[in-house]
Amino acid sequence: MARERYLVGVSKEELEYKPHVSEPMTPKGWFSNFWYHYKWVTIGAVFAVIVLTVLLWQTFTREKPDYQLCLAVEGYVPEAIVEVMEAELEKVGTDLNGDGEVMVTIQNLNIADGEGNSLQIAAANRQVMAIHIGTRDVVLFAMSKDYYESLLTNLTDGVSFLHPLETAGTAGDGTYFEWDVKELLPKELQAYAPDPLIVGVRAFTNDIKEADLKKSEEALQLLKAYLTAKG
Fold first, then answer.
1. Least crowded by CB within 10 Å, which of 109, 123, 132, 219?
2. Is residue 6 a part of any domain in this protein?
3. CATH number for the domain including 207?
4. Ranges in the chain, pLDDT < 70
5. Is residue 3 part of a domain?
6. Could you give the CA distance from residue 216 to residue 219 in angstroms, rounded to a whole number?
7. What is the pLDDT, as a whole number, of residue 5?
8. Does 70 lie in the same domain as 55?
9. What domain range is 35 assigned to?
10. What was the pLDDT predicted at 200?
């Protein structure tokens, strides 16, 4: 009875269920709704696309060096010194990619343990070295004596890490030469020079590919030319 009392004066048609019919959304309304719900997802996706586009552009437009050398020492080597080292090797190099100039690029890795960020950087740089050794994308190395000896200690196949140079001016077992870059530098940079570096070409002992051999031979010819020029 209470229900009927509340429904007095209400017609039957008014009690029938009528589904809600939405008005067609305009493009502006659709965009406003989308932006409200997915604003930050969209911004993040656009930013990721921009970064990826920039990286791809740099990859395909960057000048390709004729030679790549990985420098691994316990300490920071100023870029001014690295540039002198690059220029010194470029004097005796060959234009391998046919672009009209000889280019040597040195990757400068500080592998010295320290505190805070420097400790993380050193660990990351050692990982970079491990990747180069594993993937064989770099075959030319300049290292501190301590780091070179640590590589030899960690090798398990009993084979030298470096390829025989078979030329005058080598040291140790004939697979490297000691490069004292201090003698190449102006007086104001000499105090920042690394100790004499062990420089050589990665030796391959298994799963050898033609591209590996070609890269190795090119690097060997570069070092032989440099040692001959030093004479």
1. 123
2. no
3. 3.40.190
4. 1-25, 47-48, 51-52, 54-63, 114-117, 155-159
5. no
6. 5
7. 55
8. no
9. 23-62
10. 95
